[in-house]
C-alpha cells in the first residue's frame, strides 16, 4: 500500500497533467464519424487541438461553443443547442459529444438539459447520437476525462439486456455451459474490449492480432488505431473522424462472449456495461511486463476455449530471454516516473519486475488506484515535484512525456518518453508497449538508455608520464630497475 502525498502548493510550477476535456475528446475520436464539441471559449478548444495535432500529427476534428464575455455571465444554453444543430446539419456525424470546460462548469452550465432541449426541438436529427459529459478541467486529468466520456457513451448507446435480447451472465457452472453453447451459435465469437487512454494505435493493432490468434473478434471501444493513425483518403477534407469503432457496434456489445477491460480507470464503465448487457467482465490493470500479459493470455484461453498458440508461446520465451539480457542494466536502477495513475501503475509493475527501484512516483490527481501501487509513496503534483524528489534520491532514469524532457536534462539523466503528449519525436504515438513483444522492446529501450548514458563509470586513468615524450623521462618506477 502506497502512502499518498497530496499537493502542498497552490500552483503547478511545471504541469504534468492534460485536462479532462482533452481526455473526453480522445475517447470521442476513437469512434467513426464522430465530433467532439467543447463547451467553453475558443481558446480552450484551440489549446486541446494543439495537443492532439502535435502528438498524432493528424487532422483533428474539434468544435467549440465559443463562449464569450456575455454568454459566460448571462448563460450559454443557446450556444450548445445551436452548436449541436449546426454540426448535425452540416456534417451529419454519427456521434457528437458535448464536453464541458472549466469556464462552462464555473458558469453553471447544464449540458444534459441542453441535449434534451435539442432533441425536443430537432426530431429530424434523431439518427445523430449526442452525448453530454461533465469534464471540468480544474479537476481530474486526461485519464478521468477519457473514462467519464466512455462511461456516458456506453450509458447512452448500449441497449439494456432485455431490450437487446441478450442474457444475464455470471461466472457460474450454468454460465459456463451457456458460454459453450454461445461459442457454437456465434461464429464471429465477439469479445468487447474497453480501451483506456494509455493504449496507443500501435498497442491496439498488436492487441487485435493477439485476439485473432485465439479466433476471437475484438470490438475495441474506442478504437483510435483506425481513426488517428494513417488517415489518408481520396477526399481533400473530412469534417468528422475517419475510421474507428462504428456507433452501430455499440448495440451489439450484448452479443459478446465476454468483455475485457484494460485499466482500473474504466472500472465504472465496465460495471455499467456488464449491468446493461449481462456480459461477464475480465478486468486487467495493464498489459506491461510478463505477469500482466500472462493474465491476458489466460483470460483469452478461457474465453475462447482454445490452447495458447505456439506463436504467442514463442513471444513469451523471447520476453523471458530479454529479461535475462537486460537485468544487469536494470536491476537496482533508480527510476523516477511521472504519469497518470493507470500508466504509472503499469510502469511501476514492469520495472519492479526487473528489480529496478522506483524512487519517485508522481501523478496528476488522486484516484483509488494510487493506494495499491507497489511503491513507498506516490506524490500528487507536477514535474517540479518529480525533479525535487528525484534529485534527493539520486535518480538515474526518468519515464515521462515530452514535458519531462527538460526535467531529465536538469537531473542529468536519460528519459524514456511515454504517455501523452509526445511532440518532440516522430512516431511516438504509434509505438507498441503492450504484449510480450512490446514489453520486450521496452526493456531493450530502457537498457540502451542506461548503456548510452552511463552513470558512475570508472574514470579514465591517465599516467603522470603520459605528458612527456619517452626520451625525456628520467625517473622510472623502482619496478623497472
Tell me what the structure shows.
With 481 residues, this protein is of the alpha/beta class. The chain folds into three domains: 15-157, Rossmann fold (3-Layer(aba) Sandwich), CATH 3.40.50; 161-229 and 238-308, Nitrogenase molybdenum iron protein domain (Rossmann fold, 3-Layer(aba) Sandwich), CATH 3.40.50; 316-452, Nitrogenase molybdenum iron protein domain (Rossmann fold, 3-Layer(aba) Sandwich), CATH 3.40.50. Helix content is 43%, strand content 13%. It has 18 helices and 14 strands. It has helices at 20-28, 42-56, 69-74, 77-91, 102-107, 111-121, 142-157, 161-164, 173-185, 201-213, 224-227, 267-277, 290-304, 310-330, 341-353, 383-392, 405-411, 435-452, and strands at 3-5, 34-39, 63-64, 95-100, 129-133, 190-194, 217-221, 258-262, 281-284, 334-338, 357-363, 377-380, 397-400, 415-417. The strands form three sheets. The protein has a six-stranded parallel beta sheet with strand order 1-12-11-10-13-14. Helix 10 (201-213) links the parallel strand 6 (190-194) and strand 7 (217-221). Helix 1 (20-28) packs across helix 7, helix 4 packs across helix 6 and helix 7 (142-157) packs parallel to helix 12 (267-277). The chain is globular, with a radius of gyration of 26 Å. The N and C termini lie far apart (66 Å).
Amino acid at each position: 500500500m502506497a502512502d499518498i502525498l497530496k499537493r502542498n502548493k497552490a500552483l503547478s510550477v511545471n504541469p504534468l497533467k492534460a485536462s479532462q476535456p482533452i481526455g473526453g475528446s480522445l475517447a470521442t475520436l476513437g469512434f467513426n464519424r464522430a465530433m467532439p464539441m467543447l463547451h467553453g471559449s475558443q481558446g480552450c478548444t484551440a489549446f486541446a487541438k494543439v495537443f492532439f495535432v502535435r502528438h498524432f500529427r493528424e487532422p483533428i476534428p474539434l468544435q467549440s461553443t465559443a463562449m464569450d464575455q456575455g454568454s459566460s455571465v448571462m448563460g450559454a444554453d443557446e450556444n450548445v443547442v445551436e452548436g449541436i444543430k449546426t454540426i448535425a446539419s452540416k456534417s451529419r456525424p454519427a456521434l457528437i459529444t458535448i464536453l464541458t470546460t472549466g469556464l462552462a462548469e464555473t458558469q453553471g452550465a447544464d449540458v444534459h438539459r441542453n441535449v434534451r432541449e435539442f432533441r425536443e426541438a430537432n426530431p429530424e436529427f434523431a439518427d445523430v447520437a449526442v452525448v453530454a459529459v461533465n469534464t471540468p478541467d480544474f479537476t481530474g486529468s486526461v485519464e478521468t476525462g477519457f473514462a467519464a466520456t466512455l462511461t456516458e457513451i456506453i450509458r447512452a448507446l448500449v441497449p439494456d439486456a432485455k431490450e437487446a435480447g441478450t442474457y444475464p451472465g455470471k461466472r457460474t457452472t450454468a454460465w459456463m455451459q451457456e458460454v459453450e453453447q454461445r461459442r457454437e451459435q456465434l461464429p464471429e465469437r465477439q469479445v468487447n474490449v474497453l480501451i483506456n487512454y494509455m493504449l496507443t494505435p500501435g498497442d491496439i493493432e498488436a492487441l487485435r492480432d493477439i485476439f485473432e490468434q485465439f479466433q476471437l473478434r475484438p470490438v475495441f471501444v474506442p478504437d483510435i488505431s483506425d481513426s488517428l493513425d494513417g488517415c489518408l483518403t481520396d477526399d481533400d477534407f473530412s469534417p468528422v473522424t475517419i475510421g474507428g469503432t462504428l456507433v452501430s457496434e455499440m448495440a451489439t456489445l450484448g452479443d459478446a462472449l465476454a468483455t475485457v477491460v484494460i485499466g482500473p480507470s474504466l472500472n465504472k464503465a465496465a460495471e455499467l456495461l456488464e449491468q446493461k448487457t449481462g456480459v461477464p467482465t475480465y478486468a486487467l490493470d495493464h498489459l506491461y511486463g510478463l505477469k500482466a500479459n500472462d493474465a491476458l493470455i489466460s483470460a483469452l484461453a478461457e474465453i475462447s476455449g482454445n490452447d495458447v498458440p505456439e506463436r504467442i508461446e514463442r513471444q513469451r520465451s523471447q520476453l523471458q530471454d530479454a529479461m535475462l539480457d537486460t537485468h544487469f542494466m536494470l536491476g537496482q536502477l533508480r527510476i523516477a516516473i511521472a504519469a497518470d495513475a493507470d500508466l504509472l501503475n503499469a510502469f511501476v509493475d514492469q520495472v519492479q519486475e526487473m528489480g529496478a527501484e522506483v524512487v519517485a512516483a508522481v501523478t496528476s490527481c488522486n484516484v483509488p488506484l494510487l493506494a495499491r501501487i507497489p511503491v513507498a509513496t506516490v506524490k500528487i503534483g507536477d514535474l517540479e515535484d518529480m525533479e525535487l524528489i528525484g534529485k534527493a534520491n539520486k535518480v538515474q532514469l526518468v519515464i515521462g512525456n515530452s514535458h519531462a524532457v527538460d526535467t531529465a536534462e536538469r537531473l542529468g539523466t536519460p528519459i524514456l518518453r511515454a504517455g501523452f503528449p509526445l511532440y518532440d519525436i516522430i512516431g511516438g504515438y504509434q509505438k507498441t508497449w503492450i504484449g510480450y513483444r512490446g514489453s520486450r522492446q521496452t526493456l531493450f529501450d530502457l537498457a540502451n538508455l542506461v548503456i548510452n548514458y552511463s552513470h558512475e563509470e570508472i574514470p579514465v586513468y591517465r599516467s603522470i608520464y603520459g605528458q612527456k615524450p619517452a626520451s625525456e623521462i628520467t625517473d622510472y618506477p623502482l619496478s623497472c630497475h
